[in-house]
């Protein structure tokens, strides 16, 4: 990240490596279209969508970006994610590869549906 710590998602994207900005803009547009009323916040220096619980986040790194949905969503899409690098917390997208728009959109929709259905007050 370049310069001071960002306080908005737009600032975060502008501060990201130039090579990653198109990916971040694309992911942001997908997430915003899926959760237009969610609160946008920078938490732990990462863009979050919250409604009021955690929905998803994304982040920029030197050579890739990540999309971080809920753990339940990653598990739900486990078979489709086999060809991607993942951890228990995120999907990694190298900048030299295309953003898997349809997959990220469906994962984000799953997050919104499952988080909205929860009855507990936990943020995560």
UniProtKB/TrEMBL annotation:
This is DUF1801 domain-containing protein. Gene3D superfamilies: 3.90.1150.200. It comes from Blastopirellula sediminis. It comes from the Bacteria. Residues 21-110 form the YdhG-like domain.
């Amino acid at each position: 990240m370049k310069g001071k710590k960002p306080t908005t998602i737009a600032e975060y994207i502008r501060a990201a490596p130039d090579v990653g900005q198109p990916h971040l803009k694309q992911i942001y547009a997908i997430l915003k279209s899926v959760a237009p009323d969610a609160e946008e916040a920078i938490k732990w220096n990462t863009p979050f969508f919250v409604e009021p619980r955690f929905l998803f986040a994304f982040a920029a790194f030197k050579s890739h970006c990540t999309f971080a949905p809920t753990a339940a969503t990653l598990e739900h899409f486990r078979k489709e994610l086999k060809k991607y690098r993942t951890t228990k917390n995120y999907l990694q997208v190298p900048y030299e590869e295309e953003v898997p728009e349809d997959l990220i959109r469906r994962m984000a929709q799953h997050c919104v549906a499952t988080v909205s259905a929860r009855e507990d007050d936990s943020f995560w």
